[in-house]
Amino acid sequence: MPFKIYTDTNLTSELVGPIVFQQNSDNSTGDLDAVLYLGSVDSAKKIQADSDPGTDQIIISLVDNNPDPGNGPEVTDVKLATSNAGLAAAVAGASLNIGLTIAGGAGSRVEIHMRQKTPSGAGGVTYNQLSITTNPVRET
Amino acid sequence: MSSFAKSSFASAATAGSVGNGDVYSIAANIRNVLFTPYVVTASIQNKLYVIDSISADIQNKLIDPLYVVSVAIRHVVYDLYSVQTDIRNVINHHVYSVKADIGNKLFTPYSISAAIQNRLQNPTMGAIWKAIITLNNVDMTVRQSGLVDVEMEEGAASVASFELLPFSGAIDPYEWIGVPVTIDYLTFNSAGDTLTNHRLFTGIVDEPIYDPATRFTRFECTDGLQEFFEQKSFAQVDAVIGGYHSDVVFGETEDRWEYAQQRLSTQPASFDFDVYGVGRLTNWQSKAVADLSFSAANIIHESLGLKLISRRDVVNTVNIKFGYRFGRKWLREIGGGWHYPRPFYQFLSDQTFLPNRDMVLNALNSGWDIKSISFNKLPPSGQYTNAEGGQTTWKITDELRDYLIFGASFTIAKRWLQDVTEDYTIQVTADASIAKHGVVKADEFYSLDEDVDEEFEQVSEQASVGFSSLGDSVDTGSSFGYTPPEFGGESVGDYDQIIDPISRVDVDNAIKTAIAEARTHILKTHRANAVIIQDLLVPSADTSKTAQVSTGEVAAKGKVKRVHHTLNTSSREALSTIELSLYQPNIAGQADDAVSVPAQINTSPSIQTKGLSLGSHFGGRTTEKYNPDWTGYIGNWTSARTFPSEWYPNEFRVDIPEIEDEARDAQEFTGASVYNTAIPQDILTINA
């Protein structure tokens, strides 16, 4: 069972489709917080960075596939942290180190807290250009 | 030697053909050989030898026989020395190859990703709104007056009400009952262009209320959730709701709505209809990202409310006592045998009384079935060698041979039922809540009694024993009422077999249902915290949504439990009251045990049954007193009694052991287990 991103602590609800932030374009909604869980229900498995397993960090990065910066959401609209409290001090757009090894099992899941500020852009538009992704990991 | 000359001639004829009359000449060449004469001489030498004698003196020398034999001793003196030899090891290197298998494990590195979707909405809807009401597919908007009210609550039917201005002509309000109703909410800009159009309600008229005084008709409407289930089969309800159900836990019901509610009570979810009347099951756990977000910017002033649970409402421990009672079927088969203790030739010389078949059958007549029995007959009439070596004439009728016995062996069987109860003590807890509130418990008791086959214990009549001959000396028989053991039994000791109910589907399902119901009950009491806000009408708000509230005083995120839209066409107010249900306490790292059947309680008995022991006791020649506890055959010698012996009664006794209390009396076996429930983590932060 590969490691995946889930929406619940027991890793029973895999995130299907995008994680959706719905905000008013005039910033009246304010920041939205979300938490996702990275892990695997298979406690016999673990993942490590493929570049140097056990030495290099597993990193979650924000990716913006929009080649036209300044139009719609940017990675700097999102903060990442491993706890909700950590979001306050997190640097917008910065990658997040989540450890050298992530073991399987619901108890070893890693929390990915996100804080989305209102992107600049036209209202009534749905943007699908941001994503979070790990560096290549090796599952053993 | 003389020499001489010799002449020779040769003749030759000229070659040519010679014919008759030819003339030719004959010529011969003369060769002359001339010899030179000489003399050959040889000298003669004579050698003369002198004849003489050759002599030699012979000298004899006598040697003295005494002589010393001397032997030279040859000492060979060895020098001590060490022999040193350089050893030269010539090591031939073994030529070999060092091999190491190389296992190439190819990893397939992958990245774990999640897409982010940003939905930017227009911040405000049109300031001008309108409620479009259709009744039986006819737009009644122009007749609408006063308040339009739509209320949705999780797990319940959505209801709506509105009032229509008087109709002209005859009115039959009952014609409106059950007709379809829709309510839509539209907003417009100042130019009158439609900006948004949202459905608020889809349902039917439940009750039209006509006011003769005002001639207004008020329509109470429902989305028909209850009816939706009432029209379904149980299997269809199962498919829609899922969860668990057991008649043991909930009792039997034919009411599909009640049945649906029972199934819902085993899972932390609610079933209700959306604004279009489409059913959906929504988990109580809030989504990772809220669908709706409210802040001080849009929450109506002073509408923010907070409702926290009281400790009395919390249940964080449910003690389930579950009793599973069934009838254990026992089958015991015990074998026994008696044989005359002396050989027949001794019996011939010195006889005793013998038992008969009736005596044995009567002795076995004690509520047990005779699985099998065989009787050894006495020999038929004839001449037999007696104990003294003489011949004795033995006479016996066939009837007597079929009556008296010289031995018997049998197996008796008994079947009975025993009440066995598995008592499960199952504790469903929420440790995170217990740490916060202490134990607040509820107790639940359930029991499942399996039907018992009372006929199992019925004993066949002894009279139904039938016999057949096995050769001339043995008759065998068995009870026609004997029933062989059922398949699937478990052997206990040497003589017993037990059969418990094979299927545990019902009991397993009942236990899982009870655990799931307890777990859901705990979760439900922990989400009674509520944050209530009021906003300008939020048409997208419904009970499937997760909402987030962020103000200076309260930060909360949870599932929407209730939505109440009020559209007042008189005051032109369109408001939504939204209530969030929030799980608390919010503690990370809680264990969440899955609903499962606890380990089956071991109810195996440990019974050791004794077999039968049968002996022989003959009175008339012994001083041994009669003992009523003797088993087997008790009889007498046929000869005169010797003093002071006594005559014994003539009887055959079998002491069949009583069924042990442990195998007969009701038995209870207990087992305990604990299941923890994790309280989902909703956000609720209050800043005073």
Which features does this protein show?
heterodimer; A: 140 residues; mainly beta; Immunoglobulin-like; four-stranded antiparallel β-sheet; B: 688 residues; 36% strand; disordered N terminus
Task: Give a verbal description of the structure.
The complex is a heterodimer of chains A (140) and B (688). With 140 residues, chain A is mainly beta. Chain A has one domain (4-139): Immunoglobulin-like (Sandwich), CATH 2.60.40. Chain A has strands spanning 4-6, 19-24, 32-39, 46-49, 59-64, 78-81, 96-97, 101-103, 110-116, 125-134, 137-139. In chain A, strands 1-3-9-6 form a 4-stranded antiparallel β-sheet, with no helix packed on it. Among the domains of chain B are: 11-120, no CATH class; 128-223, no CATH class. In chain B, strands 6, 7, 8, 9, 10, 11, 12, 15, 16, 27, 28, 29, 30 and 35 form a 14-stranded mixed β-sheet that branches. In chain B, strands 17, 18, 21, 22, 23, 24, 25, 26 and 34 form a 9-stranded mixed β-sheet that branches. The termini of chain B are far apart. The relative contact order of chain B is 0.14. The interface between A and B is large, with 62 and 40 residues.
